[in-house]
């Protein structure tokens, strides 16, 4: 039964990937379209995150187009697969800018990709809207061409450290992925730790392919910590937790929002129960706000029954961008969208507040903690 369920979910993800790719390939219909470009992981270790985000965004753009578009023009989201490879993402971005004439880049996934993208934004004078990363590299120093919706890793890690401080937990271990994402996440942890006048008991690195898993587990076991914070994405997360649980029973794990995918939780199995994960978007599974109700309604119309945090993130990102495009007027370009975003101020998007200005391109600092239940669901 479990295998059949996994096969069904895999088939659904494959269909969604094919739908996104088909739309990207065939979406050259009208020169009057407003082209939005996205490079993300439709395959590879973070495929579920990329597919969910892109599907949520496309659902909203399609909904807007079905209502007549924006100022009489349709929005065309072109999504290219980079398999979470920064070099491929960079090549995709250049294709989207030079060949597809995108007026903005959207939902670019991952710290490595967004770091590599910085010089391109300058050269092409193009907007990067709602990058899917909490890294400071897209937040500091201030960059007029970058607008963030999701809270940064510093905000997420502060939420976790605040929780641990209240509980009186002092012996804290951190597992850091050996890439740009891991380094950025660790910087956030160190900042939050210093705020509470605490010190990390142990910091252990792990490769993205888990090739040094045994070494990482042994080092953390020797540190004798009370809790472990994972600054990891994809395979290393589940690999480490499962391997460490074989050595040490009853460990409490904390993870950032990049672990908030159903595939990640499914991969953990019984080892996922009790893992606490920070979130930067509203709980997408209960229709408690107008935004969540609209998200669920539009996704259901698309035939997507599995709601997700990355799905509602893509949906909200698209919703905010559409509002900026409306305010930009008929002659849409990056500079006009940037000006519209900076003039938006504090705006309520059906229960989710986004606040932009000329000096502030960080739209939200929303963060909360969720826990994985015995039946593999997220609970608030």
TrEMBL record:
<protein>
    <submittedName>
        <fullName>Amino acid/amide ABC transporter substrate-binding protein (HAAT family)</fullName>
    </submittedName>
</protein>
<keyword id="KW-0029">Amino-acid transport</keyword>
<dbReference type="InterPro" id="IPR000709">
    <property type="entry name" value="Leu_Ile_Val-bd"/>
</dbReference>
<keyword id="KW-0732">Signal</keyword>
<comment type="similarity">
    <text>Belongs to the leucine-binding protein family.</text>
</comment>
<feature type="domain" description="Leucine-binding protein">
    <location>
        <begin position="34"/>
        <end position="376"/>
    </location>
</feature>
<dbReference type="GO" id="GO:0006865">
    <property type="term" value="P:amino acid transport"/>
</dbReference>
<feature type="signal peptide">
    <location>
        <begin position="1"/>
        <end position="29"/>
    </location>
</feature>
<keyword id="KW-0813">Transport</keyword>
<dbReference type="InterPro" id="IPR028081">
    <property type="entry name" value="Leu-bd"/>
</dbReference>
<dbReference type="InterPro" id="IPR028082">
    <property type="entry name" value="Peripla_BP_I"/>
</dbReference>
<dbReference type="Pfam" id="PF13458">
    <property type="entry name" value="Peripla_BP_6"/>
</dbReference>
